[in-house]
Design a protein that fits this description.
This protein is α+β, with helices and mostly antiparallel strands. It has three domains: about 1-175, 2-Layer Sandwich (Beta-Lactamase), CATH 3.30.450; about 195-250; about 255-405, 2-Layer Sandwich (Heat Shock Protein 90), CATH 3.30.565.10. Helix content is about 50%, strand content about 25%. The protein is built from twelve helices and 13 strands. The chain has a six-stranded antiparallel beta sheet, with helices on both faces. A five-stranded mixed beta sheet has the order 8-10-11-13-12. Helix 1 runs parallel beside helix 6, helix 9 packs parallel to helix 10 and helix 10 (about 295-315) packs antiparallel against helix 12. The longest helix has about 40 residues, at about 150-190. The radius of gyration is 28 Å and the shape is elongated. The two termini are about 40 Å apart. The relative contact order is 0.08.
Length: about 400
């Protein structure tokens, strides 16, 4: 008995530690699930979250004492209606339930087992409720000892469910607040960016006018001039819209194994002609020790493209823009730096660089590129360091995890 009380106290301590993780819902759910399996001595555990819009439960994550990556990925797709299966019954009635043998319980639904190939023989389900609001159901599956799930298991899982409901609710509200804050910043910034949009539209009108007049007079040189103006301003508008969408939306990086050096080479190849026209050299210093790393190639490409484009704008003739990669295995760190010998940035402006719609380029900048870049790197679990000296140049250093074991 003393041992059991001590074990329960340890459980309560671990549960309390969940509260410090409310900003990362995925990690929080996984921690709750692993704890659910551990404290009940179950083979596995899962959480069915309640969807108010569809009035059903969806299994967001699943796992337990054994690693079942394929099982976890498949179970994300399973939905159960309220009242469907033991889990649906638990949610609808808001009562815990123990099923010693699923084959003899008429409430049991084999939908999840059919979808995943997992065999559920016994289960313990407890509703997660906070402020009389249903958050979902946590279930422990397949007790690992013959005695099956006990009232003690039910009590400790009920404590876990109560705390889990609270922290999941807090984490959801936290993410919603972040979303609302970004949308609010966009709304406030739209007015500040109106001059940028107006200038783009003026450029499009000007290019269209030159193009129309040149076509009527068969002036090929003016046709190319008008088309260049039209194309350039259309691309600026496209970038502005894409940046606004990227900044306002929640997006999980699509991690794959990819060569970070390849991203740098592709950006150099894309911008080399533009740089040459301005008398600027793009130099690569890429570490040969870096192989494939877990990144979202599209996101990192967009981020580095923003930095290199800004460096080209900051440099004059004989300018140099350098892309450099390094690894620090002892610190599990990958660093990508973009540096230039351009005009530099004042100290007070460095502090504002990543604020939405802040730009040092006047009418030439949208003020969103660096905000989006910062968001992308944050989503990767990394950070950005900036050093600059007016008249001497600027360096952006991106620090990313080198070995990402749990993307």
């Amino acid at each position: 008995m003393a041992f059991e009380i001590e074990a329960h106290l340890q459980t309560l301590y671990r549960i309390d530690k969940f509260l410090s993780s409310i900003s990362d819902l995925d990690s929080l759910l996984l921690a709750i699930i692993k704890e659910g399996a551990a404290v009940t001595g179950a083979e596995s555990a899962s959480i069915g979250l309640y969807d108010e819009l569809t009035n059903d439960l969806y299994f967001y994550v699943a796992g337990g004492s054994t690693s079942r990556q394929d099982f976890e990925q498949k179970l994300e797709c399973v939905r159960l209606k309220m009242g469907e299966g033991v889990i649906g019954w638990c949610a609808e009635n808001r009562e815990p339930v123990i099923v010693e043998n699923t084959s003899s319980d008429s409430r049991f639904s084999s939908k999840a087992d059919t979808e995943t190939g997992f065999k559920t023989e016994s289960l313990l389900a407890v509703p997660m409720i906070v402020h009389n609001k249903l958050i979902g159901v946590i279930e422990a599956v397949n007790k690992t000892v013959p005695e099956g799930f006990t009232e003690g298991d039910q009590k400790v899982l009920t404590v876990l469910a109560s705390q889990a409901a609270l922290v999941i609710e807090n984490a959801t509200l936290y993410q919603e607040n972040l979303r609302h804050a970004r949308l609010s910043a966009l709304g406030q910034g739209i007015a500040g960016a109106a001059h940028c949009i107006k200038n783009i539209l003026h450029g499009i009108d000007g290019g269209s006018y030159i193009l129309e007049r040149a076509l009527k007079s068969n002036d090929f040189e003016k046709v190319m001039l008008g088309w260049d103006i039209l194309s350039r301003n259309t691309n600026i508008m496209k970038t502005l819209v894409l940046d606004m969408l990227a900044y306002s939306k929640d997006r999980k990086p699509e991690f794959v194994e990819y060569e970070i050096n390849r991203v740098c080479i592709d950006i150099r190849d894309l911008l080399q002609e533009e740089a040459a026209k301005k008398g600027i050299s793009i130099v690569l210093e890429l570490s040969d020790d870096i192989g494939n790393v877990m990144i979202d190639p599209q996101g990192i490409y967009r981020c580095l493209l923003n930095f290199v484009s800004n460096s080209l704008d900051a440099c004059g003739n004989d300018g140099i823009v350098k892309l450099k990669t390094d690894i620090y295995p002892q610190d599990n760190l990958l660093t990508v730096s973009v540096s230039d010998n351009g005009c530099g940035i004042s100290k007070e402006n460095i502090e504002k660089l990543f604020q939405v719609f802040f730009s040092t380029k006047g009418s030439k900048g949208t003020g969103l590129g660096l905000s989006v870049s910062h968001k992308i790197i944050t989503e990767h679990g990394g950070d950005i360091e900036v050093t600059s000296e007016p008249g001497c140049g600027t360096e952006f250093r991106i620090h990313l995890p080198l070995n990402r074991t749990d993307p």
